[in-house]
Every structure is written in C-alpha cells, then in structure tokens.
Amino acid sequence: MAHVLTVVSALLCVLGTARADETLARNVPGDVGLFVEARQADDLLIPLTEPRLWLTLAELAGQPGHLQETAQWSRRIEQTIGMKPTDAIHTLFSQRVAFVAAGLRETPDAVVLCRPDTDTRELVRQWNARPLPTARRTSVYRLPNNIGVALHKDLLIFGDGASQGMFEEVLEHNETTTAASLASHADFRRLLGRVPPNPDGLLFARLQPLRDASGTPVRQPLPSAAAALGLPIMRGSRNVLLALHRDEHLLHFSAVGDATRSAPPHDGTLGRLVASLPEQTLLTWAGHVDYKQLKQAASTLPERSVFRIALNLHEHAGTIDQLTASLNSMTCIAIGAVFPQSREVPAPPVPAVAILIDTHGAAAAEAWSGLLDSTLAIYKLLALKLPGAPRLPAPEHILVAGLRGQRLDLSATLGPEPQKTALGELELSWVLDGETLIIATHTDWLRQIIASRQERKGSLAPVLELGRRTLSSKPETVFVAQTGPVADLGNLWLRYFEQTAPHVLREDWWRTRQPGGTHIRLGIQVTADAEARRLRVRSITKDSPADGFLQVDDVVLGCNRRRFATSQPVLEIRRGLAARPNARWIDLYIERDRVVHLRRIPLPFVDPVEILQRVIAGGKLVQRVVYFDDVADVTGPRGYLTLEMRTREAPLFDFPLPAKPSTRAATVD
Fold first, then answer.
1. How many CB atoms lie within 10 A of CB 550?
2. Residue 198's pLDDT band (boundaries 50, 70, 90)?
3. Can you tell me whether residue 300 is helix, strand or coil?
4. I want to staple 251 with a disulfide (CB 3.0 to 4.6 A). Which of 92, 120, 525, 643 is the partner?
5. Cα separations (Å) of 453 from 278, 449, 475, 627, 628?
C-alpha cells in the first residue's frame, strides 16, 4: 500500500461512527478483522496531523516512518488529490468515514470509505482521476501513487490500486446485494448491543480469525493482540468493540469483549489503592498479580544467571515462600517525580516508582525484610569475586509520617559520585501502612504516598471521577495516566539532554545499546536465484518481524530501496539489515502476483528519546487517561476508558522545587 493511504488510514484510528441505521458497516464484508468508523470527527482528526502523532499512528498501522517523511507524505497527499491533509480531512472525513482492514496486522492493505457532504463526481473530476475499465456498476479510477478510488453511489472508496486485496473485496461486496455485511454479522451486533445506545464512536476488531467450513483460518491471527491494543478487557476475547460518547473535552469509551469469565472474588481494594495516591502521580496501574506463579516463571531463567542463582539460594532458605504466602494478589504500581535530596547538579525531577501490595499484615513486612537481608548477604558474597563491585550499606531504620520502615541506599550502583549525576540517588525504602506493603525507589516518593493515604494532601480520587461511569466496587484493573504532566516533565528532560548530553538524542547512539545486540533477523527462509539476483521466500517463522508482512513464494528483489546488484542476494540482504538507514524498519522490494511492491517491515528497536518525543506530542493533545473495568458477567467483560483532551498549554500542576542538598536523615516526616 502506498504511504498516502497508510497515513490516511492511521488518522482514522481516532474513533467515531454513525448511528446504526446509517453505518458504513453495511458497505463492508462481514468477515473483516478491523473496522473503524468516524462521524463528524474532523476536530479530533486534524490534531493528529502533528508529525510525531502522525508517525505514531502510522506505526500502529504497520508502517513506521521517520520524522522527515511526514513532509513527503503531505506532499504525496497533495499530489494524489490536490489537497493539504487538513483540507482533505475537512472535505472528505467531516461527515462519515470508515477504515477497514482484513486484520490488525494487515492495515497496509486497508481501505478507506467516506461519504462527503459534497458532490463526489465533482471531486473525482477535480482530481483528474484516470477511469479504469470495469464490468461493475461501480466506477473505478486510478489516482497518482497507485491509489485506487471507486465511486459507488455517494460513497468514495480508496484502496491500493495495484493490489487484488481488500480494495477488490469491498468493491465486490458492494456489487452483490445478497452478500452478508458486517452490520448484519452476529458478532458485531451482539457486542454493539452491550454498549450504551447511539455512540459517537466505534471500533470493532477480531482478535481471533473467522474460520471456513474446513476449520482453516480465513485471516491470519495477530499474536498477543490484546497486549497490542493495550486494554485488559481484551484478554481471552475473540472479538472486541469500543464505543465512544463525547462530552465536550471528555471522550468516554465503553469497551466490551466476548470472553467467558466469571466475576473474580475481589473486595474493591484496587480502587482504594489508586484513589488514595498523590494527585501528582504521573502513571499508575492496579491489578492482580499471582506471586506464586511469578516465582515459577522466574525459575525458567538460565541456570547460570545471577537471578536464578539468587532464587535457588532463597528457595533453600524458604524466604521467598514466606513472602509469597503473606501477599495477596491486589497490587498497584505508581510512578511520580521527585528531586533527589543528595543531588548536586541542576537537573529536572527524576521518575520515582512505588509498588503497593495488599498483604496479611506484619508477616509481610517481616518476610520482605528477611528477603532483603538474604539478598544483601548473597550480593556481598558475589561482590568478593567481582573487582570494583560497589559496596552497599546495611538497611537503616526510618520513620515516615509515624510509620516505621527501612531504607536501603543503592546510590553506589550509580557510580563513585552519584550526587554528581542527574539521577543523584537511588533507594529502596519501605513501610507497612495497615495491611499495605509500600516499597519505593525514593524515600521522598514514599513520604508523598503516605501523606496522601493519611489525607494530608490531595489524591487521585477526583481524577477517577472523570469517567462517565463510577468506579466499580470490584474492578479487575484500574489505570490512570496524567499524560499532560508526563509531557511537561519529558520536555524538561529533553532540554537537559540538549545542553548536557546531546549525543544521547541521536538514534545511532542507541543502535549499539539494544537488548540482544545489533543482530536482527527477518525470520524468513529463502531460496537464492543467483542468476536472476533474487530470493524466493520458502517459509516464515511465526511471530518474527516478517510474519504478517511477507508471504510464502514472495520474491525479494532488493532492500533499502535498491535492487540486488550481485549474484549473492543472501549476503546483500544480510548487509542491508546491518546497514539499514533507519533502525526501526527495512524496506524490501517484493514481487507478488507479478506486481512489484515496496514493503516496509517493522523491526524491534527501542529508542527511548523517540518514545519520549512521541509521549510529549501525545501529552499536548490528551491531558489525562483513565481506565477501569467492570465485573465480568455472563455476556463477557466490559471496561470504561476516558480521555480528557488538553484545552490549555499551561501545566496541569507544577513540580515541587528542588530541595537543597542535605545530610540524609534516618527520620523522614
């Protein structure tokens, strides 16, 4: 699919839909794997043309890009339909528009349908579209950049003009009046009936494919689709649906799935854990963790790893079993920001992490202290064999707002002079507050949490009330992200790096620091044709980068936008992977069905700076995100997601002023 259609398709992932009697779901086949429909959503779509948000959405659509390419894509849209992206959204998408794909991993072959409020034939005439011969009643045209456009009554259908994929399927569906549409499909209708009526937004996705009469999947499934979409409500569901109701600057989503789950026997502690956190909490997740199962997962680590050795020693001592036996499943992770008291360099506040675990009381604190003492003893033994290993002091007793706890100073792991680094200090501080064990990376963050729990400071409770529905008494998952403040803090750190360490802002600096090194494999087995200078794909490894993007019998003609030039195409593609211009993808020339395509294959690569820049872009658009689910019933799980749009540039709250360097005290209040 050409980049133009990919970007336009990605823009539609902000949700919206028509009422049931007007939905474009009637114009698409019933077995599609992804359907997004928008109605009067141009005010939401236009902000997404911001370059970094554009890139993020394009990446979600399976086509990662570089910042410089956003300008190229804008020019291609102008070349294709003679409009700037914002004008195209106003003209084509302001009334009704839908985005359709065969599956979550097949968005590069997506189709866009829209019903503008202007004369569609006049638009096609203005674009100088070239008519194509067809026996259908639907008129089909070709636009520049291989974009196909079909005119079906008052409906415009955009797709890959050089492909026989989804574009052809949608055209064929609209020619056959007896064909089953998505609007009439039982899966779609059943989920639609479980959300509030008359939604302003809709997304339907199949996480598992439909099967034909022989039991063979019609569509390729997406591995870990629930994790990819990021909503816990999707675990175990074959199909999911999100419906949007707009309320001025609040976007309320209802999410439903068709998993069969019984209501968990939880007592509502999760809601209390989150509601009592400090109001300046940047990010928090509360859910249920099976700590005994977590211990079993840790036992699968390599035998010679330090963690596995330590685990075996703890198992012999029984300290891990004592701790897991004293913990309940209800857990909350909270991220805030603090100014390290020991830091001597001027730098922004640093992220601080805390974990809050519901326990059986004093036994948990005793077991946790015993585990840390044993771990320190093991570390000291290992440090004797590791020259230069930092020495760690014994834990010290602290008093936090009247609660007795302990603190382990880990600052030595930051270097010989941690106070002269941007992080300044690192600690492991913990207390038992009632039956909640609280462990934090910084004592100051621990103090803020205790103060909020004791109602001496503002809490997150008002943020939870942003939702259209009230928090369930027994939620399975609660998630809050104050994306506006996260963006404000991220901006502070970007400016700091620009002044003190500009090299970390470069992508090439991160290439050599990836988990697993720089060796990347596509996951394809090929047969080389040395004379023709090409490779034929014989098999594809499941869940590899190429899975879902290439097919068996595809012919690879070149990489990095160059044809293979020697009789050793295997060697050329290996070198191309190592020297690819952008670490996050590789471009391949693919011949399929006698048509040559340029396929962009996303590759695993983590660039923290790029992630931070995209988070900042998102935080300029969305101030807060709140999600919680409801008790699952016989019809399946249900969750509620609320986005608070950012209506002003001013920070939501100011970060605390840095404390002056001072001697560390055993008592904190």
1. 21
2. confident
3. coil
4. 643
5. 8, 6, 20, 21, 21
Please name which of 615, 609, 608, 348 lies closest in space to residue 493, comparing C-alpha atoms.
348
Among 620, 282, 279, 655, which residue's Cα sits nearest to residue 492?
655
Task: Tell me the DSSP string of 50-82.
Answer: SHHHHHHHHHHTT----HHHHHHHHHHHHHHHS
Q: Which of 252, 251, 228 is nearest to 240 (CA)?
A: 228
Q: Which long-range contacts (CB under 8 A, 24 or more apart) does 530-533 make?
A: 530/567, 530/568, 530/569, 531/567, 533/557, 533/563, 533/564, 533/565, 533/566, 533/567, 533/569
Partnered with residue 29 across adjacent β-strands are 181
Could you give the CA distance from residue 440 to residue 451 in angstroms, rounded to a whole number? 14
Single-letter amino acid code for the residue at 214: S
Report the chain's terminal Cα–Cα distance, integer Å.
60
Distance CA 240, CA 258 (A): 7
List the alpha helices (DSSP H) in 99-179.
120-126, 166-175
Phi-psi region of 487 (alpha: psi -120 to 50; beta: other; left: phi over 0): alpha
pLDDT of residue 71: 81
Cα gap 242→128, rounded to integer Å: 38
Is the confidence at residue 10, as pLDDT, over 50?
no
State both tokens at 280.
């300046």
Note the pLDDT of residue 61: 64
- Which residue is it, tokens 């079909």? 150
Average pLDDT in the chain? 83
Secondary element (H or E) of residue 587: strand 585-592
How is residue 215 written in tokens?
């039991």
Tens digits of per-residue pLDDT, 438-495?
Answer: 999 999 999 999 999 998 778 999 999 998 888 877 788 899 999 999 999 999 999 9
When pLDDT is averaged across residues 501-524 and rounded to a whole number, the result is: 84
- What is the model's pLDDT at position 618? 92
Residue-range domains of the chain with CATH: 3-184 (no CATH), 269-482+652-668 (no CATH), 524-602 (2.30.42.10)
Q: In this model, does residue 664 exceed pLDDT 60?
A: no
Judge residue 545's burial from the number of C-beta atoms within 10 Å of its C-beta, 0-12 exposed, 13-18 middle, 19 or more buried. Answer: buried
Count of C-beta atoms within a 10 Å radius of residue 302: 9
Structure letter (DSSP) for residue 93: I
Local structure of 441: helix, strand or coil: coil
Tokens 């390599």 found at: 302
Q: How far is CA 432 from the centre of its chain?
A: 33
Are 588 and 599 a contacting pair, CB within 8 Å? yes
Provide the token pair at 396.
């010290």
CA atoms in the 13 A half-sphere facing the CB of 152: 26
Helix or strand run (H / E) with residue 376: helix 362-383
Comparison of pLDDT for 287 and 375, the residue scoring more: 287
d(CA 28, CA 180): 9
Q: In this structure, are residues 118 and 126 in contact, taking their beta carbons and an 8 Å threshold?
A: no
* Residue 535: CA count within 13 A, CB half-sphere: 26
595-602 vs 427-433, strand pairing mode: unpaired
CA 207 – CA 219 distance, rounded (Å): 10
For 294, residues 6+ apart whose C-beta sits below 8 A from its C-beta are: none
What is the distance between the alpha carbons of residues 621 and 53, in angstroms, rounded to a whole number?
Answer: 9
Amino acid at 305: S
CA distance 608 to 509: 11
> Are 537 and 556 contacting, i.e. CB atoms less than 8 angstroms apart?
yes
pLDDT at 382 > cutoff 50: yes
